[in-house]
Amino acid sequence: MKLVEPPSCSAASTVVFIGRNHRGQWVAQQQNGLYGGLFVNRAQAVKYALFENGQHPEMIVELSREIELDMRGETASFPAIRVA
């Protein structure tokens, strides 16, 4: 029997954006809006992103401008820096 992992935990993870919203809270959000959350600090946002993307730091992008948590899958293209 072959075990299949859910999409948010697969090795072929998608990009997770992290950054601050207009209130200064840290946001982590998968690029298609499949998962995300608000966090009290950057470390917790990164920890969550790593957990959700299967421990792939190269797939985490820290945005240089504000990002709002949007679970509709409409994450825009933003200037960014790689965390890893």
Structure description:
By secondary structure, this protein is an alpha+beta fold. The protein has one domain (7-66). The protein is built from one helix and five strands. A five-stranded mixed β-sheet has the order 3-2-1-4-5, with helices on one face. Strand 2 and strand 3 form a beta hairpin. It is globular. The N and C termini lie far apart (35 Å).
Give a brief description:
The chain is of the alpha+beta class and 84 residues long.
Largest sheet: 5 strands, mixed
Total helical segments? 1
Strand and helix order: EEEHEE
What's the gyration radius in Å? Answer: 12 Å
Instruction: Indicate the low-confidence ranges by residue numbers.
Output: none
List keywords for this structure.
84 residues, alpha+beta, five-stranded mixed sheet, 5 strands, globular
What is the topological layout?
Elements: E1 16-20, E2 26-30, E3 36-39, H1 42-52, E4 60-63, E5 80-82
